[in-house]
Structures are given as structure tokens and as C-alpha cells.
Amino acid sequence: MTSRNILSLIVFLGLSLGLILAQIGLFFKPFLAYFLMLLMFFTCLKIDLADFRRINIRTIFVALFLVFVFMPLLSLVGILFSPLIFTGILLAFSCPTAVATAFFSDALKGNPSLAIVLTTITSLISIVTLPTTMLIGVGMLIKFDAISMILSLIQIVLVPLLAAILLRRYFRKISDSALKYGNFVSNIALMLILWGGVASGVSYIQSNIYDFLGINLVITFLLIIVLLVSYNMGKMFGRKNAITLTIATLLKNSVLALVIGIIAFGSGVLPALVAHLIDQNILLIPLGLFLKGK
User: Fold this and answer.
1) Looking at the 3D structure of the chain, how many domains does it have?
2) How far is residue 95's CA from residue 77's CA, in Å, rounded to a whole number?
3) Whole-number Å distance between alpha carbons of 183 and 277
4) Cα separations (Å) of 281 from 52, 88, 100, 170, 288?
5) DSSP 201-265
6) At 96, which CATH number?
7) Do residues 107 and 292 lie in contact, with contact meaning Cβ atoms separated by under 8 Å?
8) CB neighbour list of residue 292: distance below 8 Å, 6 or more residues apart
């Protein structure tokens, strides 16, 4: 079984377990940050510092347009639903790139070093863009702890990156040994992340499953548009960068969206946020199959 097939299986299992065994998944929720650190660490072990110097600055500007302009504009389709559901879709589509983007970029033969840069930059810029977008879209100035967000970014992205760089440079034999188990550990961590993430919102959607399915269909349709547009825009920078731009645009920081959504708008936005969390990950399966044929 190829690595992409294994990745598809892991994504499917994680999402399915989150829906079917939600109570067990809630146990993993407090540890999601540590699982993300594992993903980042093993991904960074494969990256050379020279990879960062080869990043084309234009790809960053294209990514910023896709993440902070194109996707929020696309979410306006959400006005077909109730105000709270629209708010949830807008919030989900306006969040920065997910930390797991580097892992998926590596697994799907993209450019993980570019993914790390995009995750860091979009997370920092979203401190300004996210409240601004929500103010324009729903007329409410949301507040969130920017300091905690920056500290989480340091913990989940920069600490594993630094640890991997130091290990590769000064303890190469240990680094090579760790890489032998990297894929296995990363796949388990990914499954637990998806399991715990989906489980956290299941109780809010069970009471109205038909509306939830309708939300899923619309979000899936929008995300397919995102995949097509971002991949085709990214092809001007080469296949690897196109893959990473696609993943960086598709995968948003769902944990941040869930936290802000509950605090600022209440549980009414959770069906849209959970639907987005599920859909953005499940679309990685056909994306992997599409890229396999390239």
C-alpha cells in the first residue's frame, strides 16, 4: 500500500472514529497540541535549511490572496442558511492555515518548507484580518487572545522546527533512526487529532442531522472550487508549490475557529464549523488520488 493510500485510510479512520466513538475521542482533545507537535517535528526532520532559501516570494503573496481574500468571498454563499450558520462558514473560511499543512504537504509530495512559512505568516496576519473580516461580514468585532495564539504558534511550529534542525545537525544518527519511525508515529498522531477534533462537536449536530448534511454539501462544493482554483494558480510555481498552495488554502485552523465560535457566537455556529472540519480533511482523500495520477 502506497503512502498516499495509507494517508487516505488514516484520514477516513480518524473522521469516522470521531463521529462513531465521540466519547472516546473527547479524551484526546486536551492533547491535540502535543500530537500536532509530533507531526511538525517528524516533518521538519526531512527539511533542509536550504529549502527555505529557495521559496519564491510570489507564492506567499498568492497564498495570502487565496487564504484571506478568495475564501472569505467564497463563503458569502453561506447567506443561503441562517445567520448563525453563515457566521460559522465565514469564520471557518477566514481562519489562517492549519499547522498540519506541513505534514500533508510532505505526505503528498509538496513543499513542506513553504507550508511552514505559510502557516507562520497567515497565523500572525490573521490577528488583524480575522476580526476585520468578521466585522465586515457579520457586523461584530470578535476578540481573541492574540498572545495565546502566538505562544501556541511557537509551541507547535517553531519549537519542533528548532528541535529537528538541531537534531539533524548535531545528532544525525539519532535523527536518521527517528525518521524510521516517523511515518508510523505521525499517522497515529494524525488519526488521534482528527478523532478528537471531530468528537468535540458531534453532540451539537446530532439533534438536526438533515440540516447538517445540507451544510456539508454546500461546504464541500465550495471547497472543491477552492481546490481547483488554488491548484491551477499554484501551477505557475511548479507542481510541488502547487500542491502546498492547495493544501494551505484548503486546510484552515479549525481549532481556532471552534474556540472563537463558541466564545463569540455560541453553539449555534458549531454545525458549520464541525462540517468544515470534516469536509476539509475528507477532501484530502480524493486530492491524494488526483495527485497520484499526475
Assistant:
1) 1
2) 17
3) 23
4) 26, 17, 11, 36, 11
5) TGGGTGGGHHHHHHHHHHHHHHHHHHHHHHHHHHGGG-HHHHHHHHHHHH-B-HHHHHHHHHHHH
6) 1.20.1530.20
7) no
8) 2, 4
Cell 508549490 maps to which residue?
241
Q: Is the pTM here over 0.85, yes or no?
A: yes
Question: How is residue 12 written as a grid cell?
Answer: 477516513
Q: What is the pLDDT of residues 172-231, one digit of tens each?
A: 788 888 878 888 888 898 899 888 888 877 776 666 677 788 899 999 999 999 999 999
pLDDT digits (tens, 9 = 90+) for 74-107: 999 989 888 989 999 999 999 999 988 998 998 8
Domain containing 187 equals 3-292
Widest Cα–Cα separation across the chain: 57
Cα–Cα distance for residue pair 199/202, rounded to 1 Å: 5
At residue 130, what are phi and psi to the nearest 5 degrees? -65, -50
> Of 148, 160, 121, 128, which is closest to residue 38 (Cα–Cα)?
160
Determine the Cα–Cα distance for residues 15 and 242; give it in Å rounded to an integer.
26
Backbone angles phi and psi of 100, in degrees to 5: -70, -5
d(CA 116, CA 9): 24
